[in-house]
Amino acid sequence: MIKVEKIEESLLYVEQALQLKPNNLDFITNYANAFIEVGKTEEFLSLIEKDIKVRPNDVNFTISYINALIKFKLGKIEESLLFFEQALKLKPNNVDFLSKYANALVKSGKVEDSLPLFEKALRLKPNNTDLINRYANALVKSGKIEESLSYLKQALQLKSNNIDFIINYANTLTKSGKIEDSLPLFEQALRLKPNNVITVNNYANALMKLEKVEASLPLFEKSLQLEPDNVLTINYYASALMKLERVEASLPLFEKSLKLEPDNVITISSYANALMKSGKTVESFPFFRISLQGIIGYANYLIKSGKTQESLLWFEQALKLDPDNIDAIFNYANALIKSEKSKSLYLI
What we know:
Layout: H1 2-20, H2 25-37, H3 41-54, H4 61-73, H5 77-90, H6 95-107, H7 111-124, H8 129-141, H9 145-158, H10 163-175, H11 179-192, H12 197-209, H13 213-226, H14 231-243, H15 247-260, H16 265-277, H17 281-304, H18 308-321, H19 326-338
Protein backbone atom coordinates (compact mmCIF):
# COMPACT_ATOMS: atom_id res chain seq x y z
CA MET A 1 0.00 0.00 0.00
CA ILE A 2 2.88 2.37 0.90
CA LYS A 3 4.47 1.70 -2.50
CA VAL A 4 1.22 2.60 -4.32
CA GLU A 5 0.87 5.81 -2.26
CA LYS A 6 4.43 6.84 -3.14
CA ILE A 7 3.80 6.17 -6.83
CA GLU A 8 0.58 8.22 -6.61
CA GLU A 9 2.65 11.03 -5.07
CA SER A 10 5.31 10.73 -7.79
CA LEU A 11 2.62 11.30 -10.44
CA LEU A 12 2.20 14.87 -9.20
CA TYR A 13 5.90 15.61 -9.56
CA VAL A 14 6.22 14.04 -13.02
CA GLU A 15 3.08 15.93 -14.09
CA GLN A 16 4.68 19.18 -12.91
CA ALA A 17 7.85 18.37 -14.88
CA LEU A 18 5.75 17.67 -17.98
CA GLN A 19 4.09 21.08 -17.74
CA LEU A 20 7.56 22.64 -17.93
CA LYS A 21 8.81 20.30 -20.68
CA PRO A 22 5.75 18.76 -22.39
CA ASN A 23 7.69 16.87 -25.07
CA ASN A 24 10.39 15.31 -22.90
CA LEU A 25 10.36 11.57 -23.70
CA ASP A 26 11.90 10.55 -20.35
CA PHE A 27 9.29 12.50 -18.40
CA ILE A 28 6.44 11.03 -20.45
CA THR A 29 7.86 7.51 -20.06
CA ASN A 30 8.16 7.91 -16.27
CA TYR A 31 4.63 9.30 -16.16
CA ALA A 32 3.35 6.32 -18.13
CA ASN A 33 5.20 3.80 -15.95
CA ALA A 34 3.83 5.38 -12.77
CA PHE A 35 0.26 5.09 -14.09
CA ILE A 36 0.88 1.45 -15.06
CA GLU A 37 2.30 0.64 -11.60
CA VAL A 38 -0.86 1.87 -9.88
CA GLY A 39 -3.09 0.11 -12.40
CA LYS A 40 -4.28 3.26 -14.18
CA THR A 41 -3.07 2.43 -17.68
CA GLU A 42 -6.38 3.34 -19.33
CA GLU A 43 -6.37 6.66 -17.47
CA PHE A 44 -2.95 7.50 -18.88
CA LEU A 45 -4.15 6.66 -22.38
CA SER A 46 -7.09 9.03 -22.06
CA LEU A 47 -4.72 11.82 -20.98
CA ILE A 48 -2.51 11.20 -24.01
CA GLU A 49 -5.53 11.19 -26.31
CA LYS A 50 -6.74 14.49 -24.80
CA ASP A 51 -3.28 15.94 -25.41
CA ILE A 52 -3.53 14.99 -29.09
CA LYS A 53 -6.89 16.80 -29.35
CA VAL A 54 -5.58 19.90 -27.55
CA ARG A 55 -2.45 20.14 -29.73
CA PRO A 56 -3.51 18.70 -33.11
CA ASN A 57 -0.50 20.24 -34.88
CA ASP A 58 1.96 18.78 -32.40
CA VAL A 59 1.25 15.04 -32.49
CA ASN A 60 4.98 14.40 -32.24
CA PHE A 61 6.88 11.17 -32.01
CA THR A 62 6.81 11.11 -28.19
CA ILE A 63 3.02 11.00 -28.13
CA SER A 64 2.92 8.34 -30.85
CA TYR A 65 5.66 6.29 -29.22
CA ILE A 66 4.19 6.23 -25.74
CA ASN A 67 0.72 5.53 -27.09
CA ALA A 68 2.18 2.60 -29.02
CA LEU A 69 3.89 1.21 -25.92
CA ILE A 70 0.79 1.49 -23.76
CA LYS A 71 -1.50 -0.06 -26.37
CA PHE A 72 1.06 -2.87 -26.69
CA LYS A 73 1.13 -3.45 -22.92
CA LEU A 74 -2.67 -3.56 -22.88
CA GLY A 75 -2.59 -6.28 -25.52
CA LYS A 76 -4.09 -3.96 -28.17
CA ILE A 77 -1.39 -4.98 -30.64
CA GLU A 78 -3.14 -3.97 -33.86
CA GLU A 79 -3.85 -0.48 -32.46
CA SER A 80 -0.23 -0.12 -31.32
CA LEU A 81 1.04 -0.74 -34.87
CA LEU A 82 -0.52 2.50 -36.14
CA PHE A 83 1.28 4.52 -33.47
CA PHE A 84 4.62 2.75 -34.05
CA GLU A 85 4.26 3.56 -37.73
CA GLN A 86 3.51 7.20 -36.89
CA ALA A 87 6.56 7.45 -34.64
CA LEU A 88 8.83 5.90 -37.27
CA LYS A 89 7.77 8.41 -39.91
CA LEU A 90 8.99 11.14 -37.58
CA LYS A 91 12.20 9.32 -36.52
CA PRO A 92 12.89 6.63 -39.15
CA ASN A 93 16.34 5.71 -37.85
CA ASN A 94 15.49 5.28 -34.18
CA VAL A 95 16.66 1.74 -33.38
CA ASP A 96 14.48 1.45 -30.27
CA PHE A 97 11.34 2.26 -32.28
CA LEU A 98 12.35 -0.07 -35.09
CA SER A 99 12.92 -2.94 -32.67
CA LYS A 100 9.68 -2.42 -30.73
CA TYR A 101 7.65 -1.97 -33.91
CA ALA A 102 9.14 -5.20 -35.30
CA ASN A 103 8.28 -7.03 -32.06
CA ALA A 104 4.69 -5.76 -32.24
CA LEU A 105 4.42 -7.03 -35.82
CA VAL A 106 5.70 -10.47 -34.74
CA LYS A 107 3.14 -10.52 -31.89
CA SER A 108 0.36 -9.67 -34.33
CA GLY A 109 1.40 -12.57 -36.60
CA LYS A 110 2.89 -10.31 -39.31
CA VAL A 111 6.31 -11.94 -39.05
CA GLU A 112 7.36 -11.35 -42.67
CA ASP A 113 6.61 -7.62 -42.29
CA SER A 114 8.87 -7.47 -39.22
CA LEU A 115 11.99 -8.75 -41.01
CA PRO A 116 12.87 -5.54 -42.96
CA LEU A 117 12.54 -3.54 -39.71
CA PHE A 118 14.88 -5.88 -37.83
CA GLU A 119 17.31 -5.74 -40.77
CA LYS A 120 17.30 -1.93 -40.80
CA ALA A 121 17.82 -1.82 -37.02
CA LEU A 122 20.76 -4.24 -37.34
CA ARG A 123 22.37 -2.08 -40.03
CA LEU A 124 22.25 0.79 -37.53
CA LYS A 125 23.36 -1.36 -34.56
CA PRO A 126 25.01 -4.51 -35.95
CA ASN A 127 26.25 -5.86 -32.60
CA ASN A 128 23.09 -5.41 -30.57
CA THR A 129 22.64 -8.95 -29.22
CA ASP A 130 18.99 -8.51 -28.25
CA LEU A 131 18.18 -7.36 -31.80
CA ILE A 132 20.18 -10.22 -33.34
CA ASN A 133 18.36 -12.78 -31.17
CA ARG A 134 14.91 -11.34 -31.89
CA TYR A 135 15.63 -11.22 -35.62
CA ALA A 136 16.75 -14.86 -35.51
CA ASN A 137 13.52 -15.83 -33.71
CA ALA A 138 11.47 -14.00 -36.35
CA LEU A 139 13.36 -15.90 -39.07
CA VAL A 140 12.54 -19.20 -37.33
CA LYS A 141 8.85 -18.23 -37.11
CA SER A 142 8.83 -17.42 -40.81
CA GLY A 143 10.29 -20.87 -41.59
CA LYS A 144 13.83 -19.63 -42.37
CA ILE A 145 15.49 -21.87 -39.80
CA GLU A 146 18.80 -22.38 -41.62
CA GLU A 147 19.17 -18.63 -42.14
CA SER A 148 18.58 -17.96 -38.44
CA LEU A 149 21.47 -20.16 -37.26
CA SER A 150 24.25 -17.74 -38.26
CA TYR A 151 22.55 -14.93 -36.29
CA LEU A 152 22.06 -17.11 -33.21
CA LYS A 153 25.72 -18.08 -33.41
CA GLN A 154 26.70 -14.40 -33.73
CA ALA A 155 24.64 -13.45 -30.65
CA LEU A 156 26.32 -16.24 -28.68
CA GLN A 157 29.80 -15.15 -29.81
CA LEU A 158 29.06 -11.66 -28.47
CA LYS A 159 27.58 -12.99 -25.18
CA SER A 160 28.95 -16.48 -24.69
CA ASN A 161 27.37 -17.15 -21.28
CA ASN A 162 23.89 -15.82 -21.99
CA ILE A 163 21.74 -18.81 -21.13
CA ASP A 164 18.77 -17.65 -23.21
CA PHE A 165 20.98 -17.38 -26.31
CA ILE A 166 22.55 -20.80 -25.61
CA ILE A 167 19.16 -22.52 -25.23
CA ASN A 168 17.70 -20.71 -28.25
CA TYR A 169 20.63 -21.76 -30.44
CA ALA A 170 20.48 -25.36 -29.17
CA ASN A 171 16.72 -25.64 -29.78
CA THR A 172 17.05 -24.17 -33.29
CA LEU A 173 19.89 -26.56 -34.15
CA THR A 174 17.62 -29.42 -33.05
CA LYS A 175 14.79 -28.09 -35.25
CA SER A 176 17.15 -27.90 -38.22
CA GLY A 177 18.19 -31.55 -37.73
CA LYS A 178 21.71 -30.70 -36.44
CA ILE A 179 21.03 -32.53 -33.21
CA GLU A 180 24.61 -33.62 -32.48
CA ASP A 181 25.69 -29.95 -32.62
CA SER A 182 23.01 -29.01 -30.09
CA LEU A 183 24.19 -31.40 -27.33
CA PRO A 184 27.26 -29.39 -26.13
CA LEU A 185 25.05 -26.29 -25.95
CA PHE A 186 22.42 -28.04 -23.82
CA GLU A 187 25.24 -29.28 -21.55
CA GLN A 188 26.63 -25.73 -21.27
CA ALA A 189 23.16 -24.38 -20.44
CA LEU A 190 22.70 -27.01 -17.72
CA ARG A 191 26.07 -26.15 -16.18
CA LEU A 192 24.85 -22.55 -15.88
CA LYS A 193 21.30 -23.46 -14.74
CA PRO A 194 21.19 -27.14 -13.74
CA ASN A 195 17.55 -27.09 -12.59
CA ASN A 196 15.90 -25.55 -15.64
CA VAL A 197 13.17 -28.10 -16.43
CA ILE A 198 12.61 -26.96 -20.03
CA THR A 199 16.33 -27.27 -20.82
CA VAL A 200 16.55 -30.68 -19.12
CA ASN A 201 13.57 -31.90 -21.18
CA ASN A 202 14.87 -30.45 -24.45
CA TYR A 203 18.27 -32.06 -23.89
CA ALA A 204 16.61 -35.41 -23.11
CA ASN A 205 14.45 -35.13 -26.24
CA ALA A 206 17.51 -34.36 -28.35
CA LEU A 207 19.13 -37.55 -27.01
CA MET A 208 15.92 -39.46 -27.82
CA LYS A 209 16.05 -38.23 -31.43
CA LEU A 210 19.59 -39.61 -31.66
CA GLU A 211 18.26 -42.96 -30.34
CA LYS A 212 20.23 -42.44 -27.10
CA VAL A 213 17.11 -43.37 -25.16
CA GLU A 214 18.89 -44.92 -22.17
CA ALA A 215 20.92 -41.73 -21.71
CA SER A 216 17.72 -39.64 -21.69
CA LEU A 217 16.14 -41.47 -18.73
CA PRO A 218 18.18 -39.84 -15.89
CA LEU A 219 17.34 -36.44 -17.36
CA PHE A 220 13.59 -37.13 -17.40
CA GLU A 221 13.88 -38.51 -13.84
CA LYS A 222 15.67 -35.33 -12.72
CA SER A 223 13.01 -33.22 -14.42
CA LEU A 224 10.26 -35.10 -12.57
CA GLN A 225 12.05 -34.59 -9.25
CA LEU A 226 11.95 -30.84 -9.95
CA GLU A 227 8.35 -30.82 -11.22
CA PRO A 228 6.59 -34.09 -10.30
CA ASP A 229 3.26 -33.09 -11.89
CA ASN A 230 4.60 -31.81 -15.22
CA VAL A 231 2.39 -33.74 -17.68
CA LEU A 232 4.71 -33.14 -20.62
CA THR A 233 7.69 -34.60 -18.73
CA ILE A 234 5.66 -37.58 -17.48
CA ASN A 235 4.62 -38.36 -21.06
CA TYR A 236 8.16 -37.96 -22.39
CA TYR A 237 9.50 -40.30 -19.72
CA ALA A 238 6.75 -42.88 -20.31
CA SER A 239 7.40 -42.75 -24.08
CA ALA A 240 11.13 -43.28 -23.50
CA LEU A 241 10.36 -46.35 -21.38
CA MET A 242 8.06 -47.63 -24.14
CA LYS A 243 10.90 -47.30 -26.67
CA LEU A 244 13.05 -49.46 -24.40
CA GLU A 245 10.21 -52.05 -24.22
CA ARG A 246 9.69 -51.30 -20.51
CA VAL A 247 5.96 -51.17 -21.11
CA GLU A 248 4.81 -52.17 -17.61
CA ALA A 249 6.93 -49.38 -16.10
CA SER A 250 5.30 -46.84 -18.42
CA LEU A 251 1.69 -47.65 -17.39
CA PRO A 252 1.70 -45.93 -13.94
CA LEU A 253 3.19 -42.83 -15.58
CA PHE A 254 0.47 -42.64 -18.23
CA GLU A 255 -2.14 -43.21 -15.49
CA LYS A 256 -0.71 -40.35 -13.41
CA SER A 257 -0.67 -38.13 -16.48
CA LEU A 258 -4.35 -38.91 -17.18
CA LYS A 259 -5.30 -38.05 -13.59
CA LEU A 260 -3.70 -34.64 -14.11
CA GLU A 261 -5.10 -34.13 -17.64
CA PRO A 262 -7.95 -36.60 -18.27
CA ASP A 263 -8.77 -35.26 -21.75
CA ASN A 264 -5.23 -35.20 -23.18
CA VAL A 265 -5.69 -37.01 -26.52
CA ILE A 266 -2.00 -37.82 -26.99
CA THR A 267 -1.75 -39.37 -23.51
CA ILE A 268 -4.95 -41.40 -24.04
CA SER A 269 -3.63 -42.74 -27.34
CA SER A 270 -0.19 -43.57 -25.87
CA TYR A 271 -1.77 -45.26 -22.85
CA ALA A 272 -4.01 -47.35 -25.12
CA ASN A 273 -0.94 -48.46 -27.10
CA ALA A 274 0.91 -49.32 -23.88
CA LEU A 275 -2.04 -51.39 -22.61
CA MET A 276 -2.18 -53.24 -25.94
CA LYS A 277 1.56 -53.95 -25.87
CA SER A 278 1.35 -55.25 -22.31
CA GLY A 279 -1.32 -57.76 -23.37
CA LYS A 280 -4.25 -55.85 -21.82
CA THR A 281 -6.14 -55.69 -25.10
CA VAL A 282 -9.67 -55.52 -23.67
CA GLU A 283 -8.72 -52.70 -21.27
CA SER A 284 -7.21 -50.73 -24.16
CA PHE A 285 -10.39 -50.62 -26.32
CA PRO A 286 -12.23 -47.78 -24.48
CA PHE A 287 -9.09 -45.64 -24.60
CA PHE A 288 -8.60 -46.29 -28.31
CA ARG A 289 -12.19 -45.16 -28.97
CA ILE A 290 -11.78 -41.97 -26.92
CA SER A 291 -8.38 -41.17 -28.42
CA LEU A 292 -9.65 -41.76 -31.97
CA GLN A 293 -12.50 -39.28 -31.55
CA GLY A 294 -10.15 -36.79 -29.91
CA ILE A 295 -7.53 -37.10 -32.65
CA ILE A 296 -10.11 -36.54 -35.43
CA GLY A 297 -11.56 -33.59 -33.49
CA TYR A 298 -8.13 -32.04 -32.98
CA ALA A 299 -7.23 -32.53 -36.66
CA ASN A 300 -10.46 -30.76 -37.69
CA TYR A 301 -9.66 -27.95 -35.25
CA LEU A 302 -6.24 -27.53 -36.90
CA ILE A 303 -7.91 -27.17 -40.32
CA LYS A 304 -10.25 -24.47 -38.96
CA SER A 305 -7.20 -22.71 -37.51
CA GLY A 306 -5.58 -22.66 -40.95
CA LYS A 307 -3.04 -25.38 -40.07
CA THR A 308 -4.16 -27.89 -42.71
CA GLN A 309 -0.66 -29.26 -43.31
CA GLU A 310 -0.26 -29.99 -39.61
CA SER A 311 -3.66 -31.77 -39.51
CA LEU A 312 -2.53 -34.43 -42.01
CA LEU A 313 -0.29 -36.17 -39.45
CA TRP A 314 -3.20 -36.38 -37.00
CA PHE A 315 -5.58 -37.86 -39.59
CA GLU A 316 -2.86 -40.39 -40.49
CA GLN A 317 -2.57 -41.30 -36.80
CA ALA A 318 -6.37 -41.74 -36.60
CA LEU A 319 -6.33 -44.01 -39.67
CA LYS A 320 -3.64 -46.17 -38.08
CA LEU A 321 -5.98 -46.71 -35.12
CA ASP A 322 -9.02 -47.38 -37.33
CA PRO A 323 -8.26 -47.70 -41.09
CA ASP A 324 -11.98 -47.95 -41.98
CA ASN A 325 -13.20 -44.95 -40.00
CA ILE A 326 -15.43 -42.98 -42.41
CA ASP A 327 -15.04 -39.63 -40.59
CA ALA A 328 -11.26 -39.91 -40.60
CA ILE A 329 -11.13 -40.93 -44.29
CA PHE A 330 -13.54 -38.18 -45.42
CA ASN A 331 -11.88 -35.39 -43.41
CA TYR A 332 -8.40 -36.58 -44.38
CA ALA A 333 -9.43 -36.46 -48.04
CA ASN A 334 -10.67 -32.87 -47.64
CA ALA A 335 -7.46 -31.90 -45.85
CA LEU A 336 -5.38 -33.39 -48.67
CA ILE A 337 -7.36 -31.38 -51.24
CA LYS A 338 -6.89 -28.18 -49.23
CA SER A 339 -3.17 -28.84 -48.94
CA GLU A 340 -2.94 -29.44 -52.72
CA LYS A 341 -2.07 -33.10 -52.25
CA SER A 342 -5.21 -34.45 -53.89
CA LYS A 343 -3.19 -36.99 -55.87
CA SER A 344 -2.70 -38.85 -52.62
CA LEU A 345 -6.44 -39.57 -52.52
CA TYR A 346 -5.90 -42.48 -54.86
CA LEU A 347 -3.92 -44.15 -52.08
CA ILE A 348 -6.98 -44.34 -49.80
